[in-house]
Amino acid sequence: MRLRKTKAVIAACGLTLAMAACGNAGSGDKGKEVAGKDVKCSDFTGRAAEICKAGKITIGVKFDQPGLGFKSATSDTPTGFDVEVAKILASDLGIDSKDIKWEETISDNREPFLQQGKVDLVLASYSITPDRRKVVGQAGPYMVTGQQLLVPADSKVKDISDLKGKEVCSVTGSTSIDKINEKGAKGVGFESYSECVQKVLDGTVSAMSTDGTILAGFAAQNEGQLKVVGDPFSEERIGVGYSKKATGMCDFINKSLTAAFDDGTWAKAFEKTLGPSGVDTPTPPTLDPCQS
Amino acid sequence: MDAVTSNFDLFLKGFGYTLFLFLISGLLSLVLGTLLVACRVGPVAVLRWAGGWYVTLVRSTPLVVVFAFFQFAAPMLGIRFGWVDVHIGAFDFTSFFAIAVVALTLYTSCFVCEALRSGVNAVPLGQAEAARAIGLTFGGTMSQVILPQAFRASVPPLASVLIALIKNTSVAFIFGVGEAVAQMRIMTNNHSSERTTIFLAYAAGYILIVFVFSFLANRLERHWRVA
Fold first, then answer.
1. Are A251 and A49 contacting, i.e. CB atoms less than 8 angstroms apart?
2. C-alpha count within 13 angstroms, C-beta hemisphere, residue A281
């Protein structure tokens, strides 16, 4: 029965392939277009005003994190909470979301891309740290999350202390893998979170760990096979990255985020992207003041 | 430089894994490569054919794909390395390390085989004929006459193959082994303001290892030089 269904799907896809790409069954996750607001560019200063006048912006997001920044092979634009917040910011600069150029940034190239001006903003689950603030500007946080565990649905693991000396998967070189080692477990690193999911599913490792919001997305994708457990054992403050040379950026971002917190567009974006994975919408975090 | 000096133990541990990977898979690929070359130049047609195809297939597959095969496809076929569980000091050798060794060995042994084959071809045919004439079997001819001369002639290409292996171990960084590049990633993530110095420090580490190895290979070559 299952085989027949698969065959039918392949056949159907084969047919449609001639005309269009074979998309996901539920293409409802396609991000909505957000129109740019009517703004006066003279209200902004420095780089923010320049971007407003140019009417286009390049934003770095992740392409491999369901619920935050994710781009499937068949769609042109990424989706997720980071992406929605990026659209809010762009719209406050008077830029339609269709005029945003999405650039994939991975953990390793976020600072170089900002410094070289390849992207204007980075919203790529970008934790605010003092060391990063030495080389780039970081405004926010627009979300606070913590590291949890993703385990098989029948696992007895309750939190990280159950995994002392055991191997726990995460992404090579991420803050998460450092935290795993600190807590007495042994971090093993892979290229992406989806590869870790694979290793948890095939039983090579007993758990994987990173920000709870990311894990929730994978738990939702593999319902009945995986679950998120444990209290958060770290605090990640996710912010917006911009170049140190971009004057006026921080003031603009903080103003725009405050407005989004107050009028509910932030909460709406959260519900739409992370809500389906079972994450409750939190109260908006407190923004750091801009350093002058 | 602070990031590297204050985490020097991690720096060393990373290169420790790199060296372990290199030594173990280097040794194994020399053994497997020698067996392969015996197959390829041997008198048994089936083995010649099998050796030839093995080299052609594995050599034309990217190393990352070999790794990914053992990491993601093999568990579905029931091939796991869960029984590997050795801990020496601060080093853990588990399934991830074992898979890295297997992938690197299978991949590198093809190149070892071809480097050795060039050495075998350099041995004059008369040597083999003379060995046969005095009644040596194929095994005897290979182990007593051909391979000792072939090894000497193939030291330079073998050294190149093994130097490539030293650097190829870095592929293991995205497959669960905490070797040098994986440690470098952790450092650049935690100390993004010192990215360049961290890169340079790790590059220097690799250069040092390769220099030492090249030096030894040169000495061996001179020591073993065929008149």
1. no
2. 15
Element (H, E) at A11: helix A2-17
H helix intervals, B42-94: 45-59, 63-68
Name, in order, each residue with C-beta under 8 angstroms of B154's C-beta and a sequence gap of 6 or more. Answer: B115, B116, B118, B119, B122
Rounded Cα–Cα distance for residues B207 and B5 (Å): 18
Which of B131, B147, B65 minimizes the C-alpha distance to B103? B65
pTM of the model: 0.79
Encode pLDDT of A73-115 as tens digits: 888 889 888 999 999 999 888 888 888 999 999 877 888 899 9
| CATH of residue A183 | 3.40.190.10
Q: What is the DSSP string of B90-131?
A: TEEE-HHHHHHHHHHHHHHHHHHHHHHHHHHHHS-HHHHHHH
Count Cα atoms within 13 angstroms, Cβ side, for A107: 25
* pLDDT tens by residue, B138-158: 889 989 999 899 988 899 999
B160: Cα separation from own chain's centroid: 10
Closest chain A residue by Cα to residue B3: A131
Q: Does B175 touch chain A (CB under 8 A)?
A: yes
Asked if B122 and B40 count as a contact pair (C-beta separation under 8 A), the reply is: no
Contact B190 A135 (CB under 8 A): no
Please tell me whether residues A116 and A242 are part of one structural domain. Answer: yes
Q: Do A71 and A182 belong to one domain?
A: no
pLDDT tens digits, one per residue of B64-77: 999 999 999 988 88
Q: Is A136 exposed, middle or buried, given 0-12, 13-18 or 19+ CB atoms closer than 10 A? A: buried
Supply the DSSP string of A53-81, one letter for each residue.
HHT-EEEEE-SEETTTEE--TT-SS-BSH
Domains of chain B: 2-224 (1.10.3720.10)
- Say whether A228 sits in a helix, a strand or coil: strand
Answer whether residue A16 is part of any domain: no
Host H or E run for residue A115: helix A110-115
Rounded to 5°, the CA angle B87-B93-B99 comes to: 165
Selected residue of A64, A170, A172, A202 to mutate for chain B interface (largest B Cβ count, 10 A): A172
Q: Is B92's CB within 8 Å of A202's CB?
A: no
Contact B82 A202 (CB under 8 A): no
Closest CA to B180 of B6, B1, B23, B15: B15
Q: Which domain holds residue A54?
A: 31-145+237-277
Both A141 and A185 in a single domain? no
